[in-house]
Amino acid sequence: MVAITEFQKIGIGLVGFGLFFLLFGVLLYFDSVLLAFGNILFLTGLTFIIGFRKTSHFFFQRHKFRGSFFFLGGVSLVLCRWPIIGMLVECYGFILLFRSFFPMALGFVLSLVNIPFLNDFLQSGSSMV
């Protein structure tokens, strides 16, 4: 079993509150204050969970520069009170940053669910790509 440090526990709480404020900000018609607070909490929590060096290494790799630029640019647009445009830019950056992670997450979810028809359909679709 992996030991979780106190900083990682705090980071999990900060990420949870950040996601809550992001969701709440979107539900309240893109309230810029809630979205900005959610973004700050999310990024701070991520830093607490994986550490400052690993966070900076993740965001500033050469092949992830465009995704990091859009994601952090979207965060700064939200902080400058342009919430709708900022969230769109941020979502695009998130997709660019985590594009290599999506197939693994989908495979994990499918292994948990194990729906035969859907599983066969998605496996045949991934072999076409």
How would you summarize what this structure contains?
With 129 residues, the protein is an all-alpha fold. The chain has helices at residues 6-27, 32-50, 52-59, 65-79, 83-97, 102-113, 116-128. The protein has one domain (6-112).
Task: Provide structural commentary.
It is a single chain. With 129 residues, the chain is an all-alpha fold. The chain has one domain (6-112). It has seven helices and no strands. It has helices spanning 6-27, 32-50, 52-59, 65-79, 83-97, 102-113, 116-128. Helix 1 (6-27) runs antiparallel to helix 2, helix 2 packs across helix 3 and helix 4 (65-79) packs antiparallel against helix 5. The longest helix is centred in the N-terminal third of the chain and has 22 residues, at 6-27. 21% of the residues are buried. The model has no long low-confidence stretch (mean pLDDT 89). One of its GO terms (cellular component) is endoplasmic reticulum. InterPro entries: Got1, Vesicle_transpt_Got1/SFT2. The chain crosses the membrane at residues 12-30, 36-53, 65-84, 96-118. It is found in: Golgi apparatus membrane. It comes from Hippocampus comes (Tiger tail seahorse).
